[in-house]
Amino acid sequence: MSSKKSLTATNLAVHQHLNCDLYIHNVYNRTAPASGQDPASENTSDELSKAQFKRGLDWEASLYAWLDDSGLLLQVPAIPLAASILLENILADDRTHFFITGLSFWPPQSKLNERFVQAGAEPLTFGLAKPDLVEIKRTNNIIQWRVIDAKASKNVKTSHHIQIYFYTLCLSYLLEPPFFQIAGTSGIWLPPKDGFQTSSPSVADIKTVSVSLLAPALDALLFRELPKIISLPVAKVKWHYNPLCHGCQYERTCRARAEDEGQLGRMPNLSIDDAQILKDLLRISRSAGFQSTGVKLTDIEELHHLLANPAKVDQVAKASPTLFKKGKRILSLPKKVYQRNAALQSPLVEAARTQEIQIMRQRNYTCPSKEDIAIVLSIVNDPASSNPGGDFFCATLHSEDSEIILPAPFTCSADEFVSKLATIIRSIATLHPDNSRRYSSQFYVWAAAEQTLLQAHIINAALHPGTSNADIRLCISALAQGVSLLQTTFQPILLSGALINFLGKGKKLKSEYQACLARLGLSTDGTVDVLRKRIDEGIRKIRDEMASASGHDYRRREFSQLPPVVSLMKEVQRQMAFPIPGYWNLPECVELLLRSENACPSDEQIFAMYKAGYDSEAFSNVLLGRNLLIYSVLKEFRKRVVSTTNHSLFINEARIMSTNFMDICKESHIRKLFFMQQFEVLAKLTDLWKSRIDGCPEAPTLEYSNVVQGRNGPEYVFRLVCGTVDVPAFDRDWAFYDKLLVLDSSEVTNNGTDPDSLPVEALFDDLGISGLVFPLNRWTKASWGQQHPRVQRELVVADVRNVYTDKNAASTMVALRIWGNWQMSLTPGSIFRLSPRLVDFNTSKILSALFEIDVLWESEGSLYADEEDDGHHSVPFLQLVMNPNSFGKIHGAKKYVKTEGEIQKLFRDLKGLENNIAGSLVLKSSQHRATQRILSNRLSVVWGPPGTGKTYTISLSLLRLIEVEGRYSGPRRRIIFITAITHAAIEACRSKLVRLMDAYRSVESLPHKWLDEVKVEVVSRGNDHPGPSRSDNGTYIYAGTLFQLSNFTKRHSFQVDCVIADEAGQISLGAISLVLRSLTVEGRIIFAGDSEQLAPILSAQYPQLKFSSLFGSVLDCLMFSSNPISRENSQVLQASQDEGSEFQASQSQNTVVQLTENFRYVIILLEETDS
Taking every annotated instance into account, which residue ranges of this chain make up the domain PD-(D/E)XK endonuclease-like (predicted)? Predict the structure, then answer.
């Protein structure tokens, strides 16, 4: 069956991975690779490839051993099997479920040829097929099968799909129906997330894909596209030389072609997608007749001529604005051009043309301009090893200050790294001869992959025993992304705000003051007044330390976020264009920048030395030399990356390394949420800074027109020149002033780190005023005075009041209210840019609530024995997070449910007597189950899709609850909160409740006195709303947002008996703490929502934790925690359940009740029928 020309499933997978038609063309036509390949290079590349291949083999061996131990494996002879022999092996095994391994077979070429003929293509020949596993299941005399491939990668890739589809296609002709049946899916079996060396395989890790979903695209590829590609002349086959080509057997030939023919691959690190965008731009330019000369230009020359002609650029931009915008990003063109008709130059294109290094003249805020001490790390990673974060480490310290006595470098294995690094960090903290000062420092690695390995190693060390807790906390403080920045810049403001919020309202116990002081590392001795003053001094000290760290020197202010570990390769790629085709790494960079006589070893050569077992001294010297070259590249990089006026383009200087792990919360779940809230602020600020440092190129620009008198003062009217401005909501209670307005001029140049040359928005301090209400008053104006002098002179905050078209409908007009004290007159025709600022009234409130819950948890801990309460100490918020099932039932639940059943029967009987009002008070079957669940349990979840009556159910359930509790508990004060994330949801719930109360009152002969004791109020301003009477025995229902209800409880210091949250799928865990912190120990929680609803949108990315879903919505937490709340079984979910048996069914209800009747869709269907 073999042929000289053939393709295997592996060839098909590589074709998909490389996305290279030339590869598949060469393989099928047996094109020989270029001669003259360096044998040493081949050997070292092979060593790394062997390690990667070994990882795959190890995973397969682990999987097969597990299947064998489970009695699920059938090993067939490792020789090509005919279809008949394969059938005999399957039929001879009497198990109902097993997996076949070792299978190999020749594809059914005749059947495949028929498919090629049907597609009108020349047949291709295929080689031996070797699927990893074929899963077999016997059911009712039918054998169902599917192909499963074991892959040692983290995610499923397109290249995996083509392999399993090809195997499935071939086997579908060999295992013929009706006796054999395709399962309809194929699968990729991935290793456990914790690693197959430490965790057993699981069928849950089989990532299935529908065969019918793959078939259309892959059939077209196999039977139509591939024959066309293979039949083309080599010159017409699509290809692009790029980083994916590294290691390909045809790389040498393609590199030479890219250089000789001036292909786009002559520019380094240009992905296939980016290359296609540039080709499309050139195609548009050609279609418009821009190529004026008769000489055929190379791609590089054509791009150069296009950019040099402003008229051509303008026409291409108008022909395809989106494509041109992407092209500007790829070619590193200026984001904003102030001079019209100016020729453009791309550093990438010019480097490829001139064969000289080109500088990208853009500010850099992620690599410091200098540091006292640079710590360079090199990491060797063995793909075949079980270490998730590297196997061998080298650390060296460097400084241009000869007076600094640096600690000695070290090389070590993974087990020793954290302790050795912690020793280095401690040494740096004590190096400065002046004990009151410390040296600034910065960590560097070469590649982003090393940065990822370093983070993984630190996280893994923190999660596993054996590492000193002090060492790991020190390393996290110094190396974890964002942690040090939070501690030095943001945490002082956020934490001081949270502590002030926590202590500022309501009386506090002495123990609470002491807990607060203990977390700040301060003495807990003294009276309440002494403790309070000590806390005030501690907060002031935090802020003073922050201020002294910056020294109020705006030239040393940090713009955007300096990462704790800088990937130097990433920074060089961002700032410098090298005349190197395809891609480059450290050896090429060293050769080009340093012209060093000492050749830098490649990653493959270093790995080959590591695997060859070089003696430790020789191998350590290689890594030490590599680190020295990295530091030399860093110095040369800084020397070359300057503006046209020879100013450095590096904005920031290195910080003093943080060695204090500021962590004021002790309970682990709260601590994670506490950091998450801070990282959310940091992520939003980072996004703003990235835009501001370049002068907000995406911001809409406005031309000033005139000023008019608005309802609340003067409004400044502008014409929208470009961009978009959202129409403001007209139901806002107050103006947020959430925009920055700045004169848009070319006077601000890109010439360095001088604050006078930076865009003024880059100097704006969002956090200092993010929680203030504008216009500022005499008490808050001092915060504005802390802004940079340029900010106060050149910038105003603005609020969009209206967006409309002018009388002629020719222009979009924008009306703004502004606040500030800028020294600038508004002249008609002046151009301004409008950009967002951070407005955040709520983070400090959430942090305060979490801190308060943490203090309560600690104080309650003394009442519980170890593991007596699953660690939540009966704190409602932590019960919700850690074990929702711990809430349990209400005392007297049976009699509550029985009485409510009688009320339901009464309204049903009245409905039967044609009392329509009473009929509106009858709950449907699933709604009634939800009501009885609410009456009998402390925690209830009512969920269902839109239109199932969730709001109606919780409103009527609340009235039933109040009535039934009143009968058994007698008169007492009850406080109930109704909350949601939006005002609309709150109003819907409140209005539904009021209408149902009116319906109750309208039913004659029913007792209504209990309703007279129910007061429903909307809390729109929590600080001003009157509190509940302490002497009144009525029921108070307060409806408001989480934040206003939080202000309300702090203002009046009371506890809540029941919290009802509608649209809980939109509420984050951190936000719900605002109201749950006030819930009594025996209080009820009622959530209603849709688990498919859009969850809270987070700015940053957070890990998926094993035991709880902390970083999603409240419903996510309840559905996906390690102690998931029980849900209704299939028997309870029967919508046809007899009405008369509702009470009996309710006895076995579970926590989550799904509403099954959908009223909204019924109404829509009726309307459609009527129409």
Answer: 105-255
Contact 46, 193 (CB under 8 A): no
d(CA 79, CA 102): 8
233-242, 789-798, 913-922: the lowest-pLDDT one: 913-922
**Least confident range of 110-119, 283-292, 1074-1083:** 283-292
Q: What's the rounded Cα separation, in Å, for the pair 1153 and 1146?
A: 11
Query: Could you read off the pLDDT of 407-418 as tens digits, one per residue?
Result: 999 999 998 999
- When pLDDT is averaged across residues 741-766 and rounded to a whole number, the result is 70
DSSP string spanning 183-212? Answer: -SEEEEEPPPTT-TTTS---GGGEEEEEHH
Distance of CA 446 to the CA centre of its chain: 25
pTM of the entire structure? Answer: 0.77
**Residue 594: strand, helix, or coil:** coil
pLDDT higher than 80, residue 1066: yes
Task: Please enumerate in sequence order all residues whose Cβ is within 8 A of that of 521, keeping only pairs 6 or more positions apart, or say none.
Answer: none
In the block, which residue shows the tokens 């009501």? Answer: 931
Here the tokens at position 566 are 């800088």
- Cα–Cα distance between 312 and 344 in angstroms, integer? 11
Burial category of 1081 from C-beta neighbours within 10 Å (exposed 0-12, middle 13-18, buried 19 and up):
exposed
- Provide the residue ranges of all domains of the chain, joining segments of one domain with +: 9-236, 254-288+296-356, 373-480+561-640, 483-560+665-691+842-867, 695-836, 876-1165
Confidence of residue 490 (pLDDT cuts 50, 70, 90): very low
Q: Measure the CA–CA gap between 698 and 1007, rounded to whole angstroms.
A: 64
Query: CA-to-CA distance for 780 and 1011, rounded, in angstroms?
Result: 45
Outline where DSSP puts E strands in 711-806. Answer: 713-722, 739-743, 795-805
- Give me the pLDDT at residue 1165, please: 41
Q: What helix, strand, coil percent values describe the chain, rounded to 5?
A: 45, 15, 40
DSSP 773: P
The tokens of 825 are what? 């007159």
Contact assessment for residue 927 and residue 1157, using Cβ atoms and an 8 Å cutoff: yes
Residue with structure tokens 């296009």? 306
Q: Which of 884, 866, 797, 934 is nearest to 1122 (CA)?
A: 884
pLDDT bracket for residue 503 (50, 70, 90): low
End-to-end CA distance of the chain: 66
216 contact partners, CB below 8 Å, separation of at least 6: none
Q: HSE-up of 889 (CA within 13 Å, CB side)?
A: 15
Per CATH, the architecture of 876-1165 is what?
3-Layer(aba) Sandwich (3.40)
- 3-class DSSP assignment, residue 1013: coil
Place of tokens 């080509």: 245
Return the bridge partners of 715, or none.
708
What strands, in cross-sheet order, belong to the sheet with 441-445? Answer: 410-413, 392-398, 373-380, 441-445, 565-567
Rounded distance between C-alpha atoms, residue 858 and residue 665, angstroms:
10
Hey, how many other C-beta atoms are within 10 angstroms of the C-beta on 727? 11
Residue 217 DSSP SS3: helix
Residue 715 phi/psi, 5-degree rounding, is -120, 130
d(CA 416, CA 434) in angstroms, rounded, equals: 31
pLDDT in tens, 259-301: 999 999 999 999 999 999 999 999 998 886 655 556 788 999 9
> What is the per-residue pLDDT for 652?
86
Helix ranges (DSSP H) in 971-1101: 983-1002, 1009-1012, 1042-1052, 1069-1076
CATH topology for the 373-480+561-640 domain: Nucleotidyltransferase; domain 5 (3.30.420)
Least trusted range by pLDDT, from 2-16, 818-832, 1095-1109 = 1095-1109
Show the DSSP H helices in 765-868 as ranges.
Answer: 781-785, 789-794, 843-861
Which residues 6+ apart lie within 8 Å of 1063 measured at CB?
980, 981, 982, 985, 1088, 1089, 1093
CA distance 146 to 97: 12
